[in-house]
Write a structure and sequence with these properties.
The protein has about 650 residues and is mainly beta. The chain contains 3 helices and 52 strands. The protein has 3 domains: about 130 residues, Ferric Hydroxamate Uptake Protein, Chain A, domain 1 (Beta Complex), CATH 2.170.130; about 350 residues, YVTN repeat-like/Quinoprotein amine dehydrogenase (Methylamine Dehydrogenase, Chain H, 7 Propeller); about 80 residues, Immunoglobulin-like, CATH 2.60.40. Strand 25 and strand 26 form a beta hairpin. The longest helix is centred in the C-terminal third of the chain and has 26 residues.
């Protein structure tokens, strides 16, 4: 229940969010604020922008932030140093004085450094932090000795780091509320289906493609790839990650992207440049590759059927546990429990230290979606089958001691639930259904004639779901069960994954290999600046157009570095090179609040005239010097396709002749 109350408080706080202003306030200036981040270590994060005045300490900001967010907290004062944070919202430090070398949980203090543009650990007490000289302060609940910084930053406050947003599988972004969306760009990656959500953090986006599949041969002729691209839609790097249909979303954590590939290999890739750190072979069946999450600084994934694995940050197995059922959805992490939905209809609570099963409860049917962990209960979705045909389903809630609290039958429910300010929602063959936390049905919104696909995404006052029919649609249902608005996806493509949200943008992926980016309309805060540019080459002279850049507060300044030692400023500039070769060109934009964004492209002078860059709202098709498209296949791959087509036509003609006989 407390999660819902805090969600409402968070919504109110977020509606007042402003960018931090450094320095003491004067009569002619807005009051100074210091951003305060509380990172619970499980993907759940809360921000508060606290007004600060001369003489306030970091502890004063902390007390104001927790009060603004409605969080219970406790601290102890250690003479003569200052306050030590012991507990926030029930997450309590567990330092064992009798065993100093044993793992323990602790609230770690960080400050934002503008000099290095990242979080830095501080060994000082929170009382010693000067909020007037610090843009942002963070407290992160972490298990020692892990010291990795939060993924959220003052400029990019709301990362989407896993399939269902966080390791609780909330499927929610309750600080958002919008009256509609507007497509900003579409990126065709040209490497097969993308059937998992985009994950994002620190201004970067990551999409996992399955590779090109030839249906007549039932084989993949290209490898799966993880693509990293900027918020402008420009591809920064791409890495091959096995083969097969990828239905497990990546994980972004501690500066690393983890991909649990369809061929049963866990890849750990540097989030900055895509360099491979390590791989681990997990074992698998075709339907038993789950999206990774993190618990106790361990990456939690599925192994062989009915096997749960914990892998360390260095790529070694820490423990394995057998679950008495196969499972296809990711578990949820809640404190010392891993919650796993079994295909046999049981919900299992497994100990996060790998010691085995704590309890289980029978729901019936098949638990299809990932469990959703709330403060005092777990919500699951299920589907009943008769002779392999789905005949029913719904939602259920279970307490943390394994007791069934309530069950709300609806219809076959293939996806996960999402947390709303009023309860939980799920989608089924009947439409979208809202249920209160005490199990009372609140409404069902029919979505016919379209069919809901994937899992819902909950916002403040509305829930989004993707439907398919004559064309894909993004549908927003308000808190009373009525369709508030909908957006037809153009060009029409099949979309089976759920939406994700980050930095005032919504992202969708398609089975045709595209990524869609949408602006939210009428939101309460400003999109961070996003650098983007196009260019036109005429011989050795290049015209650069920075008008594709967007976001930021107030006016933007544009500073160019042309890769030959020359620089210029202005939205649109021309530059003449001495040599007709390749040059790395960087555009840095800065808004009136001092926030900056930069983008680097390789500009190749290889012809008398060439263009680069998308139109606003158009398709980006040249964001990488060697994009993965059909024209980039090897001759072997092209030959295979041609042979497959010839075989298919030959078989078709032969069967037609046989029918005539």
């Amino acid at each position: 229940m407390g999660l819902i109350k805090r969600a409402v408080a968070t919504i109110l706080i977020t509606s007042m969010m402003v960018l931090c202003i450094s320095g003491p306030a004067t009569a002619a200036e807005e009051p100074s604020t210091c951003a305060f981040l509380i990172d619970f270590g499980n993907g759940r994060i809360l921000w508060a922008d606290v007004p600060v005045t001369e003489g306030m300490t970091g502890f004063d900001v902390y007390e104001n932030a927790t009060a603004m967010l409605g969080l219970a907290e406790s601290s102890s004062y250690q003479m003569p140093n200052g306050h030590y944070i012991t507990s926030i919202d029930g997450y309590t430090g567990t330092y064992n004085y009798s065993c100093p070398v044993c793992p323990y949980d602790i609230w770690r203090l960080l400050k934002w450094s503008d000099e290095v543009d990242e979080w830095t650990w501080t060994s000082s007490m929170i009382d010693d932090v000067d909020p007037l000289a610090t843009k942002a302060i963070a407290l992160m609940y972490t298990r020692y000795p892990y010291m990795g910084p939060p993924t959220a930053t003052p400029q990019h406050r709301d990362p989407w780091i896993s399939e269902r947003h966080d390791f609780l599988n909330s499927g929610s972004a309750l600080s958002y509320n919008a009256t509609g969306v507007e497509m900003k760009w579409r990126l065709d990656l040209g490497n097969g289906a993308i059937d998992v959500p985009v994950i994002s953090g620190a201004g970067r986006l990551y999409a996992l493609s399955s590779g090109v599949h030839v249906s007549v041969m039932d084989t993949y002729v290209t490898s799966s790839k993880l693509f990293c691209f900027a918020q402008s839609g420009d591809v920064l790097w791409q890495v091959e990650v096995g083969k097969g249909h990828q239905d497990a979303a990546p994980l972004l954590w501690d500066g690393t992207v983890y991909v649990h590939s369809a061929d049963g290999v866990l890849y750990a890739l540097d989030a900055e440049n895509g360099n491979l750190k390590w791989t681990y072979c997990t074992g698998k069946t075709d339907d038993n590759v789950t999206s990774p999450i993190v618990c106790d600084n361990l990456i939690i994934i599925s192994g062989n059927p009915g096997e749960l694995l914990a892998v360390t940050r260095s790529g070694s197995l820490y423990w394995s546990m057998n679950v008495p059922s196969t499972f296809a959805s990711s578990p949820a992490a809640f404190k010392d429990l891993l919650l796993v939905g079994g295909k046999n209809g049981n919900l299992y609570a497994m100990a996060s230290n790998g010691s085995g099963e704590v309890w289980n409860v029978t729901i019936g049917g098949t638990i299809t979606g990932s469990p959703v962990a709330l403060d005092d209960r777990v919500v699951i979705t299920y589907t009943n089958y008769t002779d392999s045909i789905p005949t029913g389903g719904g939602m259920a809630a279970v307490s943390y001691d394994g007791a069934l609290i309530w069950e709300a039958p609806t219809a076959p429910t293939p996806g996960s639930a999402a947390v709303t300010p009023d309860g939980v929602v799920s989608v089924s063959s009947h439409g979208m259904t809202s249920v209160s936390l005490d199990g009372q049905p609140q409404w069902t919104a029919p979505l016919d004639p379209s069919v809901p696909i994937g899992s819902p995404l909950a916002m403040n006052g509305m829930t989004l779901v993707v439907t398919t029919g004559d064309s894909g649609r993004l549908v927003a249902v308000n808190s009373h069960g009525f369709v508030e608005w909908e957006e037809v996806i153009e060009p029409s493509q099949i979309i089976t994954s759920s939406p994700s949200i980050s930095d005032n943008m919504l992202y969708l992926t398609s089975s045709e290999g595209s990524v869609y980016a949408f602006f939210f309309e009428d939101l309460q805060w400003i999109v961070p600046p996003v650098s983007s540019f196009a260019y036109t080459v005429n011989g050795t002279t290049v015209h650069f157009d920075g008008s594709l850049s967007y976001g930021g507060e107030g006016g933007l300044t544009y500073n160019w570095s042309f890769g030959d030692g020359q620089m210029a400023s202005g939205m649109n500039v021309d530059h003449t090179y001495e040599n007709a070769t390749a040059h790395k060109v960087t555009l840095v934009i800065t808004d009136s609040a001092g926030l900056r964004s930069e983008l680097t492209k390789m500009v190749v002078l290889r012809g008398p005239t060439q263009d680069s860059g998308p139109e606003p709202g158009g398709t980006i098709d040249d964001t990488d010097p060697s994009p993965v498209t059909l024209s980039g296949w090897t001759m072997w791959g092209a030959g295979i396709i041609a042979l497959a087509v010839i075989l298919a036509l030959t078989l078709g003609i032969r069967r037609a002749k046989e029918r005539k006989r």
